[in-house]
Amino acid sequence: MKRNLLIITPDYPDSTDTYIGGIFIKDFVDTVKESFREIVFYPRCLFIPRSLHIPGITNRLKLSFDTRPYIVKRLVKNLGKRFDLIHANFTWPSAYIGVILKEELGIPLITTVHEDPAWLSEENAMAHPLIKKAWVNSDAILRPNSLDIPVLKNYNKKIFRVSNGFSRIFRPMDSMACKATLGLPADRRILLSVGNLEVIKGHRYLISAMRNVVSEHPDLLCVIVGGGPQRGALEKQIAREGLAEHVLIVGNRPRNEIPLWMNACDLFILPSLNESFGIVQIEAMACGKPVIATNTHGSREIISSEKYGLLCQPGSPEDLADKIGVGLEKDWNRQEILQFAERFSWERIAGDILKIYDTVTST
Predict the structure, then answer these.
(1) Residues 148-155: what's their mean pLDDT?
(2) Who contacts 348 (Cβ-Cβ below 8 Å, separation ≥6)?
């Protein structure tokens, strides 16, 4: 018999996937929806529509998170449904709300701790009793990288390392055709970075690195896809450093357009100061592209060999420039990169999560 799943999430993409916060949750749901009778969301993000227009998936709780136990219980009770399992994404407030509902409904709770390592470290140091309660009372905790698992094992022994995955919209395409579609120059090599324009994403170090890189590779164009609070500061930095001909910020783009940008590039760059995983780098690999990334918890486990990409020190434009130079000269085996990326397909990752669902619901 198919089960009913309650997903608690603080974020979700908008209807056009231009805003892609929580995109990994949407991709997961798209992959597993046929395994459930119904999937219901308890959201905070205003982008989540009342109807997701996906068979078997509804969202009747289009409200801001309210962590008062009686409110949480009343909202779910009003649905008139019996749920078999709760999956909370992020610790606060999702997992705490999950604990309230677990106690009320008598069903298992799985928590995926998506927080970046710095955020997780703050939560651990804070030692807040409600955060501790969320971790201790989860029937299983999932973490995208293994390096942070020892921290979580102080609270719960049922920890699983489960990666995020990539959508099948990311696949190899003709590079020149993608350049033409996007209006990119056919005679220039392209570096690409995709991510929100926030301090933690490290774009200012990429721009600084470009000063050194273009002196050796004057044909380069670095394209940054994304929007956010740092856009103005980054555009001023580009102008100040005389890089207007070499660095282009194109803002947020619809998600179905991102594979075109990735296939148009020669190297994908992830300059983040911190990442718990970094989905964009496996999406680039799924297009056959090598990745230059900073040596964060997430990237360290993904770029496990220089056959797939290169690692540099976070916050070091000099090291980033050096690795970009090496990457531009290297003869990459694109087929090997594609084969490696397959281990991160959502079909494979979702299968692992469903097995964990089966384990916690059968005990």
Answers:
(1) 96
(2) 165, 342
